[in-house]
Specification:
65% of the residues lie in helices and 2% in strands. By secondary structure, the chain is an all-alpha fold.
Length: 210
């Protein structure tokens, strides 16, 4: 007759230990709070920082459009905000804007790009005649540079020369179609907003669909 085998003490002890171990609930580590939202390394929790960042973005957009005088005004407002990092960035662009707005008079620009930069700088400080002189020289040196024609069109608007503005803007768009979309949102062309030729040039799809 076969004998029943008794479980060994070792296996019984292991079972009891396993049961005791299983019966203890696992402690969950508390989750760390999510980091505050950031943009470019700047925390956006404080609504004052959010407002400061909005000002900085607007100033930067003006800066890239080479509207340095208006950009400078917005950048100076950024300095008053609570974020030191945004203020530091603003100071960098303020220095560059100041240099672009006040080119040394002793400079003698020769290349088309140098003449263009000087022309834009003169526009930003309201020296229309000096701006036109430099931009016309730049256009002569680089007749297929769309940004020079565009700058001349903007200058024409600022000085009330509608026909010349339309002619220069048309060439700028022919050379680079993206200029059509830039002009739609460029405040320098507010002078032409009521001119039907301006609408036809910037919104050809409306004319085609009529």
């Amino acid at each position: 007759m076969a004998k029943a085998h008794k479980p060994s003490r070792g296996s019984s002890g292991n079972s009891k230990r396993s049961a005791r171990h299983a019966s203890k609930p696992m402690k969950k580590k508390p989750l760390a709070p999510p980091p505050p939202p950031q943009r470019g390394g700047v925390e956006l929790v404080d609504p004052r920082v959010q407002a400061q960042l909005k000002l900085y973005d607007e100033a930067l957009a003006l800066f890239h459009q080479q509207k340095f005088a208006r950009s400078k005004q917005e950048l100076e407002k950024v300095l008053e905000g609570p974020s030191k990092e945004l203020a530091d960035r603003a100071r960098v662009h303020l220095r560059i804007a100041a240099q672009r707005m006040n080119p040394p008079l002793e400079q003698n620009p020769r290349s088309a790009e140098e003449l263009y930069q000087r022309g834009v700088a003169m526009m930003n400080i309201g020296r229309w005649d000096d701006a036109r002189e430099s931009l016309i020289k730049a256009r002569k040196a680089a007749p297929k540079a769309d940004h020079i024609h565009y700058a001349l069109a903007a200058l024409d608007c600022l000085t009330g020369e509608a026909d010349s503005a339309m002619a220069n803007l048309k060439v700028a768009i022919e050379l680079r179609a993206e200029n059509r979309y830039h002009a739609r949102n460029d405040e320098d062309f507010a002078f032409l907003q009521e001119d039907p030729r301006f609408t036809e040039l910037l919104y050809p799809e409306k004319d085609g669909g009529a």
